[in-house]
Write a structure and sequence with these properties.
223 residues, seven-stranded antiparallel beta sheet, three-stranded antiparallel beta sheet, 4 helices, 12 strands, 13% helix, binds flavin mononucleotide
Length: 223
């Protein structure tokens, strides 16, 4: 048997993985980034095949990793983790530097970054695992600790969306309420509070979408 609670005991960090160049750059939030070897220094990033960034990494053969600090702004995580570069220009008006390969490196909310050249790609079904040799790194802030995935879930009251390898489809509980004062998005964890928003959830139009991840109204459950 597989008890998904066991997966929740695993720990991760939180990163922005970017790829592309000055004209066509993009990035996404990832918690599935880890160092594979020390000599040479190699880092792996597990990217959903549907992510806009994945195609860019495949094409350019390089990516960057920005390590987010533990007070990283929700707005940056929401933009890079719940919206797609296929729809918006995520790097517009962001603080971006370019590596030797031309890859964009996001500096907002970052305490360190690494520039990597893809040396191997593993097809893992829904995801591609890019293994990159580290070309250069920079430490931006020695004072702030890195954000962990556990802190992200607790502080931001969000969960990783379905493209994340660590996404867990929560089973429907038999006592799920049909109506209430608060409704939670089952895709990202955003909570709609009737009192705060003014309009009762039930009165929102059918084509209303989650303001964080764009999930349809039907993805919300009364809590
Ligand atoms: C906390 C968190 C962790 C995530 N981890 C991953 C991950 O490891 N791999 C992945 O492919 N997507 C992950 N995602 C989802 C992508 O960030 C998300 O699908 C993003 O919108 C893709 O952007 P893109 O289409 O512009 O590339 C994560 C999202 C969040 C919020």
């Amino acid at each position: 048997m597989i008890d998904t609670e066991a997966f929740k005991r695993m720990s991760y960090g939180l990163y922005v993985v970017c790829s592309g160049n000055q004209k066509n750059g993009n990035g996404y939030i990832s918690n599935s980034v880890f160092q594979v070897t020390a000599r040479p220094a190699q880092i792996a990033a597990c990217c959903h095949k549907d992510n806009h960034t994945t195609g860019i990494i495949e094409k350019t053969g390089s990516f960057s990793i920005s390590v987010l600090h533990n007070e990283a702004k929700t707005s940056v995580i929401d933009k890079f983790g719940y919206q797609s570069g296929a729809d918006i220009d995520k790097l517009k008006e962001m603080n971006v530097e370019y590596g030797g390969t031309g890859v964009p490196i996001l500096l907002n909310e970052a305490i360190a970054w690494m520039e990597c050249k893809v040396v191997k790609t593993v097809d893992a079904g829904t995801h591609l695992i890019f293994i990159g040799e580290v070309l250069q790194t920079e430490l931006l802030d020695e004072t702030k600790p890195a954000m962990t995935y556990a802190e992200f879930k607790e502080k931001k009251q969000r969960t990783a969306p379905s493209n994340a390898p660590t996404h867990i489809d929560e089973p429907e509980s038999s006592d799920t309420k049909k109506t209430g004062d608060k409704y939670e998005c089952q895709q990202c964890g955003f909570v709609y509070e009737n009192e705060k928003e003014g309009t009762p959830f039930e009165e929102l139009p059918d084509d209303w979408k989650c303001p964080v991840c764009g999930a349809p109204k039907s993805k919300f459950k009364a809590i």
